[in-house]
Task: structure prediction
Amino acid sequence: MSTLFRKIIDREIPADIVFEDELCMAFRDIHPQAPTHVLVIPKKEIPSLADARAEDQALLGHLLLTIRSLAVTLGLADGYRVVANCGAHGGQSVDHLHFHLLGGRHLGWPPG
Ligand code: 5GP
Result:
């Protein structure tokens, strides 16, 4: 079944897209938890990190290097956090793999 993020990739739902290439897309979270809060997702429909396979190794690396580049272009020189919520205990609410890129303020630890 198509998730909300598939609909964003297909432009069926609007989003504030900050980056896109043939493999991934990055757009601002609709409920930002920090001054900068961007979601980075693969275009391939992988439900969660738990569903990633060895064949996804290059794609996962691409996502992380995209996040690294975005952190530079979005001005997160003072640091940032990358989060992938996975499954019910991880607090995942959309079943399409995504990394949260959070920055622009000091982030506390540990998470809730
Ligand atoms: P999760 O809780 O699965 O780790 O993260 C899902 C994220 O998607 C949440 O931070 C939530 O605010 C965001 N989100 C949910 N619906 C939409 C939407 O329609 N547009 C955008 N841009 N973000 C959304």
User: Anything to note?
Assistant: Residues 4, 13, 15, 27, 29-31, 39, 85, 91-94 surround guanosine-5'-monophosphate (CB under 6 Å).
